[in-house]
TrEMBL record:
Coiled coil: none annotated. SUPFAM superfamilies: Dimeric alpha+beta barrel, Winged helix' DNA-binding domain. One of its GO terms (molecular function) is sequence-specific DNA binding. This is Putative AsnC family transcriptional regulator. The keyword Ion transport does not apply. Keywords: DNA-binding, Transcription, Transcription regulation.
């Protein structure tokens, strides 16, 4: 476990707003030496806190407007093979192993409702999937975020 201080939190905040910010810009915005910023970023990367610098892609302008969550119940002993089958489906965005009535929660996106139906058919045909329950996402009033939580972790 890594302990964060105010500089770490400030750097993570700046990067969450602009993942393309360079060390010079981060140093300027935090009033800290470039070497200090570089060392902090290296520390955060080595600790696994920074897990890459990927752009946030909005799928809607690409015509991918249908979002759904599939709760999957699995047959015993099939977790790895089901996850491997899900990984082969491009429309599957994310998979979480869960507790409760479902074993996996799958986030998926398609262009159309017909595409979602085809996706569901493909998912339930994976060997080891016993049952599925699909929930459509109508809107996303609060997008994925981590900064408010990170702000509470300052030592």
């Amino acid at each position: 476990m890594i302990t964060l201080d105010h500089l770490d939190v400030r750097l993570l905040n700046l990067l969450s707003r602009n993942a393309r910010a360079g060390i010079a810009e981060l140093a300027l915005r935090t009033s800290v030496a470039r070497n200090t910023v570089a060392a902090r970023l290296r520390r955060l990367e080595n600790a696994g806190v920074l897990d890459g610098f990927a752009p946030r892609v909005n799928l809607e302008p690409l015509g991918v407007t249908v979002r759904a969550f599939l709760a999957l119940k699995l047959e015993q002993g099939h977790l790895d093979s089901v996850v491997a089958g899900l990984a082969d489906i491009p429309e599957v965005l994310e998979v979480h192993a869960t507790t409760g009535s479902a074993d996996l929660l799958v986030q998926a996106a398609t262009r159309t409702h017909e595409g979602l139906q085809e996706l569901i058919q493909r998912v339930v045909s994976i060997r080891g999937v016993a049952h599925s329950n699909t929930t459509l996402a109508l809107t996303t009033p609060l997008k994925f975020r981590v900064q408010p939580l990170i702000d509470t972790l300052v030592d």
